[in-house]
Amino acid sequence: DMLPGFVPCEECAAERDVTAAMERGAIAPGCPRCGPEVSIVDRSGLRVARGEEALRAAEVALGEGRIVAVKGVSGFHLMVRADDTVAVSELRRRAGCGDRPFPVLFSDQLAIRSGLGAAVVSRRELDEMSSPAAPIVLVRPPGGQLRGGISAEVAPHAPDLGCMLASS
What we know:
The chain is of the alpha+beta class and about 170 residues long. Helix content is about 30%, strand content about 15%. The protein is built from six helices and seven strands. A three-stranded mixed sheet has the order 5-7-6. The protein starts with 9 loop residues before the first helix and ends with a strand.
């Protein structure tokens, strides 16, 4: 949906018929001048940090074992460090999802290869993850053993690990 009161900068407005976009209920494109903006809000919805400060605060929260909700294109993603068994267990408890496997978000293809240790991730699997569809791709760690400190609580009783790259 179009953000209430959203006014694009001149450059964005020139690139697109904003009136038509508003009539369709589409989100207008954003840029560094008119948005979107990285920010952190507290439980009451009050914005407490923006930009680089917000990114650092999220990084600290994850490092402290806290659960961070990240608003993405398709809704909120609940995140914890995959190598923090206590945090993964707490997320699992709060989400009430039993022992359903969680996907692991990697920053890039190199992180997938190094994070899974000796796991063989095919070029096809990496290309799938990098495609516009940005699917979760199941990868079977060699010998069924997770590497890179990934907690067994991420995917208890599952032979495969769901791997993904950020889609937005």
